[in-house]
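Re: the 532-residue chain
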Amino acid sequence: MSMRPPTLRHTLTAAALAAALAIPGLAAAQDPQRGGTMNIIVQPEPPLLVLGLNQQGPTQTVAGKIYQGLLTYDFNLKPRPELAESWEVSPDGKTYTFRLVKNAKWHDGKPFTAHDVVFTTKTFLMETHPRARAVFARCESIEAVDDYTVRFVLKEPFGPFLQAFEVSSAPMMPKHIYEGTDFKTNPANATPIGTGPFKFKEWTKGSNIHLVRNDDYWKPGKPYLDEIYFRVIPDAASRSVALEQGTVQQTQFNDIETFDVPRLKALPNVEMTTKGYEFFAPLSWIEINTRVKPLDDKRFRQAMMHAIDRAFIRDKIWFGLGRPATGPVNSVTRFHEPDVRKYPFDPKKAEALLDEMGLKKGSDGTRAKVKLLVMPYGETWTRLGEYIKQAMKRVGVDVTLETTDSAGWVNRVSNWDYDLTFNFVYQYGDPALGVSRTYVSDNIRKGVMFSNTMGYANPQVDTLFAQAAKAVKDEERQQLYSAAQKILVEDVPVAWLLEMEFPTFVDKRFKNAVTSAIGVNESYDGVYMVKK
């Protein structure tokens, strides 16, 4: 990455940017039209809509229309202007200066200024947002140079700092509403106020969330839509029917079970894309509790990699969505290293590794017994569990499938009460933000989900991740991350399965739905409906 990201005079105009980034078919086919209602599925129902307090997936999708970040990102993860119109980075990689738009207002009419940015990053998110806290704790100072200029000075360089300003990573919060209050109990949490193109209107629990156009939005002429309804539909079959019948015009993430995708993809009234998830770049794996025998031996974990046919998983369980994973960094994001040890589907190699461990087959053909806690995220994961059981049985490992609800799954995994489970996490555009947290030993934190719950520890990996995070030049960061990936793929702290792709279905009448790497979590200020 260049040490001087583009300033405003080097960026595209808003209209040109939308045209350059939009997905063919989902892009604008004519001049945008004003008016229309869009119905979008949200599942599960968010616990609340204040994005600074809750960053779960459904909250991000809804609240991304209410709140905004300083930046957004194109499909190649390059930063683009949002509430920050331009920015500069000092040659030593420690000072970041953001110049803000001067006409943005909060939904209650108060102006958005640099003081809101300072309050958000220095105070609010440090208390409420674990991911943001880890980033902004690296700052020596955060100050408002004037009402529309903010300067961040880091204690030491941090390579992915510019990746930390999208709407879910650092949602801007109104200082005048939250300063001096208990953020989590503030009465304003019931009526979220942001700077985004849509304002909160009403929430009918168990049914829908209603957003309406912000007529005082800071981008002239936008948004185009009159309103958006987010429809709560818990049943997967009902979600598919709603899309087929046109009662909803968009689905995303896990809304549609993978086995329904081929049928829905053929519908004449909708288009499907897997673009718009590049910033999240989810990667699925079998999480392995390395504290438990025989899982503490890397040869057993390597045997698992050889025993599992990832191409079969992609083709027969995920119906072609995704790519077989080769390691901890998704190939669509930054600093992926392709030259790592390979684990082709080879049950004989798996058995040889198990023999080497001394795990000989008993009279019933069983070498070892382990338990797999199936992730409660739908029927696709249940089918995956059944396949893993069959695949491991073939090499002499008896797998008992365990089930629980979402709360039980989080409780057991975060407290290390499991042998194997499934998981997938977001990578957030840079290994320092979304990858290292899974593997560094100082993130082995009992009771904390999406940390190093496997208990994996390798001092060399810790050092490489730490050095890569603070390296200034991309070439140096790549070298360090490549070395870390090679070690991890040898050690197999998790059994990587797929670089996941999610299907986003959009009614063909709606244009510009997917225009960036954060996809359906964007503001939708450029989405419009083609009227007959």
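The longest strand covers residues 139-146.
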